[in-house]
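Sanity check

After download, print the first record. It should look like this:
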Amino acid sequence: MSDVDGRKPLKVGLTGGIGSGKSAAADMFAGLGVPVVDADLIAREVVEPGEPALESIAQHFGKAVIQGDGALNRRVLRERVFAEPSEREWLEQLLHPLINHRIRERLEASGAPYVMLVSPLLIESGQVDLVDRVIVVDVDKQTQIDRTIERDQVSADQVAKILASQCSRVERTRRADYLLDNGGSLEHLRAQVESLHRQLSDYVGLEPV
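Expected structure tokens:
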């Protein structure tokens, strides 16, 4: 990852496995005034009714993945792609280039000294190549499972399939420039976020909030 020059914002990627608490960390950075680009929101945009990607998905998977109002039935599609790895690969090949293009545009247009890309698949999708620094929100695997089951009301088997589709904790932490330990309280996480925000603000010459 290359350093940012003085003419462009420092692009910082924030990621973590499912149930790690990356959304909580992202909200904390946003509360400190950091512009946040959410890859999940962009992923939803590119499959909205009227978007070419939605038509391609309907042609490939059939009408079962489209709701009566014309919107994508995400639950049905999720079940299909996690049950069959080749289907997930097809979907990723369709969507990742579209998502990455929009992400790149919004990162460059932020106008801030540093901007954050929040993405659960930062490393797996290749979005890591769009940023200059990587923050990983880290928790142990059992915590991920317990939090996801409680939050999403899904089975342990489905959580296991999602975890299998993401890169390992070892690989994720290996790619990190900064680690945020979210195995404790939200106050503990907030203290780490504020400390890192001061560090990044100092790097780009920004007076921290």
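If your output differs, re-run the checksum step. Summary of this record's structure: DSSP finds nine helices and five strands in the chain.
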